[in-house]
Amino acid sequence: MKKLILFIGSVMLLTSLACGFNFSTANIQSATLARDAEGNDPTTVFNQDDAFYLVAEVANAPDDTVVKAIWSVIEAEGVEPGYVLDERELTGSGGPLHFYVENDLLWPVGRYKVDLFLNDELDRTLEFTVEGDVTAQAEPSPTPEPQPTATPPPPPTPTPTQASEGSGGDTIALKSTSTPTAASSPTEPPAAAEPEPLPFQDQPYTHASGAFSIAVPQGWEKVDEDDFSVAFGDRQSRVGVIFVDMGASLPEDDVLEFADSSKDIIMESITDDYEVIGDQNSLADNGFYYMGLSFDGGDGAADVFYEPRDNIIFILYFASLQYAAMDPTWSELINSYQIDPAAAGAVAPAENAPPEPPPAPAGPSIPAGKGMLIYYNYTSQDFVIDIIGPTADSAVIPPNSQHEFILDPGNYQYNGHSPGGDFVINTTDFAIVEGQITEKGVQ
């Protein structure tokens, strides 16, 4: 089939709860397919150039109620049955939920459906059809520019930083766009011209480590740089890249935990007050986790991408008080962004690496006819070490320190405990040889 480029989006509009509301089980009171965002033109038969809208009314819902819509193909010309167009979750305490899927070209004629889930339980399925005689075209037709909203659009799809296979076959390429607004009436003035990206400097910036490179708009100054990061910006916007060596390749849950814990560090250089307004976990499919934020009372918006590569997590972020106008520039920045995990791994300190053990003494002196046991305490507290054998001895070893026991040759045991007995070292056998050093320790 010919490739279709779909513009996918969703927005949740919350309304105030009526006075005297009594809590009961959350439920979806109604769900309506329509040709408009507010559901004023309901239908189950769409034209090939229509956007699909769904308005669901939720009642008796606590703040953590999750509603999910999955749009998919039942049977359509040139598209594999069951193909998922979009899957989106919205969380809130009630009111109308607004989902939509928009195609920049033409929908294939056929049958479609949207499955609506309430807290992961299928609540209902709405089927609809697309009718028309026009064959879907490969070249996109113009799409009106979305009006800016207080909520930033879902993330643009980052350009792959590693080689990928071609996209031939029965596929539909997806990318996100901002929340739709109601159509203008014939008496309203035409929409403003689409914003253009800023001009860029002749050469992209390449970090001294070689770990990444990115284009820089003309007039933007370097506001921060160190061995593992850089940031550029002007008075309204900022883009930055950070890389961290985690010491090991992390499972998905740990990547998400790292993202949640690091967002404060990233945003503190931009604002003192912000909120997370959306995220997208595409680690399995596209290799990144996305977080959307708003700040400055909703006037500003930010995107943060976390991209794990082997032991390294690369962080690309963008924030602006003029997010909608800067969206084309942000897209160009994403397209220019390139990473080199090997170069990053060569210079980045391991985030979770164990502390380096204290160095062994240089050339310790061993009396004639004796041997030496060097015992290391790598912990953060005192340990009492007792030596049992031909030579009995005992010593308190402070944190991150060592003690040298001079012992007669023979077979020995040692055990230990922290003062107070909260931690215990089990009895362990060892041997001392004349003129040689034996090393033991606790971590």
Count of individual domains: 3
| Proportion of helical residues | under 10%
CATH superfamily of the largest domain: Mog1/PsbP, alpha/beta/alpha sandwich
What is the class of the largest domain in the CATH system? Alpha Beta
Show unreliable segments.
1-24, 135-153, 159-191, 350-354
Number of helices, counting only DSSP H or I runs of 4 residues or more: 3
First-last Cα distance: 61 Å
Rounded mean pLDDT is 78
Record field, number of beta strands: 27
Summarize the helix and strand pattern as letters: EEEEEEEEEEEEEEEHEEEEHEHEEEEEEE
> What fold name goes in the CATH topology slot of the largest domain?
Protein Transport Mog1p, Chain A
Which structural category do the helix and sheet elements fall into? mainly beta
What is the molecular shape?
Answer: elongated
Give the amount of beta strand, in percent.
35-45%
The CATH architecture of the largest domain comes to 3-Layer(aba) Sandwich
- Biggest sheet, spatial arrangement of strands: 13-14-15-19-18-17-16
- Major sheet size, sense and barrel closure: 7 strands, antiparallel
Radius of gyration (CA) equals: 31 Å
Write structural notes for this entry.
The strands form 6 sheets. The chain has a 7-stranded antiparallel β-sheet, with helices on both faces. It has a 5-stranded mixed β-sheet with strand order 2-4-7-1-10, with no helix packed on it. A 5-stranded mixed β-sheet has the order 3-9-8-5-6, with no helix packed on it. Helices cover 8% and strands 43% of the residues. It has 3 domains: 1-144, Immunoglobulins (Immunoglobulin-like); 197-353, Protein Transport Mog1p, Chain A; 371-442, Carboxypeptidase-like, regulatory domain (Immunoglobulin-like). The protein is mainly β. Strand 11 and strand 12 form a beta hairpin. The radius of gyration is 31 Å and the shape is elongated.
